[in-house]
Amino acid sequence: MDLTQVSSSPSRGGAPAKNAPDNAVQQLGLLDERPFFRRLGAFDWLFALAMVAGAGFALSRYHPFMNYYDKLVLVCAVPVFVTLGWRWKPVRLLIASIAVLSLFAIQVYQGDLARADSAFFLKYFLSSQSAILWMSALFVLATLFYWISLLSRSPTGAAIGSKMTWAAVLMGFVGLMVRWYESYLIGADVGHIPISNLYEVFVLFSLITALFYLYYEQHYNTRALGAFVLLVISAAVGFLMWYSISRDAQQIQPLVPALQSWWMKIHVPANFIGYGSFALSAMVGVAYLVKENGMLADRLPPLDVLDDLMYKSIAVGFAFFTIATILGALWAAQAWGGYWSWDPKETWALIVWLNYAAWLHMRLMKGLRGAVAAWWALTGLLVTTFAFLGVNMFLSGLHSYGKL
């Protein structure tokens, strides 16, 4: 329901209903003037308790493999995920499912990596490679169902696509968590968080982009954009499959010296939250241009909704990309003795930052809207893709360890 439509709808006498906005808000359950903590119920506090207990379990069991900074990140992650679960309730089941399946896989391994080829659940479902393959297949199938729904006006197809996207996110995160454990089974000196090479970060990119989309899908109460957003995720999956086949990239390798730092554990996720949000804004921009040109116009959300989603995605992405850039500079100072060296990766990261800073400036100061904003968002994805992937392919520098 669109509140703007409700508030402007006439009453039976032809004049706008006096209390229409208030009534609509109350009917939708959006008006609750109680303080936030007083709105929390028993399940909210049980979820928070479960998160604290989970962190305690992780600290007690895996503390020999964690340094001071790892423990600090884990402790700080608890309030972040608790707040996320309170604000976005569907993510609770996702977090619980990831924990259960990951711990089950660890139990089945029994400390022996060779069981990945013999134990049924590991071989076909829960080893890192199997889980990521399931993720890839589910994302592609979700894309197909979203498009079938959009073209045939079938809400059932979109519902199936949404559930498949959730399942893909679950399997992808399980795959990363199990891959983390597998790296330690290879050797304590090999073990590392699985965000160190193109294979692993493409998985992370797909998951973050999908999670952002699923949040906005619920927030705006529309599944029509899934057909567009899942296209960029399927493209990432396609690259992931090619990269695995041609480079055997799914194999776990020891970290190169430059990446043996705790900075990687916060810099890379922040970076890819930015990348995922930028990708989402670009695909929303595509949907905007499609609707504006009269195609699928009656099946996509209103242009002002698409414009608002595009703006929010870029704003969130810009905030996290800024944090990632600052963290990267601090990491560079520690690793290479200087905050900035005009390395090709750093230079293109600055270009990406300036591009979206200009977009937001034009939006906030000049009222940037419409097709120009959409084309700019789409162009931004091309610039970001080159900064993320093209630099690795065509240029060299201090970040050359990420080469194809």
TrEMBL record:
Q: Does the keyword Transport apply?
A: no
- In this chain the Cytochrome c assembly protein domain maps to 196-399
**Compartment(s):** Membrane
List keywords of the entry alphabetically: Cytochrome c-type biogenesis, Membrane, Transmembrane, Transmembrane helix
- Annotated InterPro entries: Cyt_c_assembly (IPR002541), Cyt_c_biogenesis_CcsA (IPR017562), Cyt_c_biogenesis_CcsA/CcmC (IPR045062)
Annotated region (Disordered) at 1-21
Q: For this UniProt entry, which segments traverse the membrane?
A: 42-62, 93-111, 131-152, 164-181, 193-215, 227-245, 272-290, 311-336, 348-365, 372-395
Pfam families (UniProt xref): Cytochrom_C_asm
Name assigned to this protein: Cytochrome c-type biogenesis protein CcsB
Lineage, broadest ranks: Bacteria, Pseudomonadati, Pseudomonadota, Betaproteobacteria, Burkholderiales
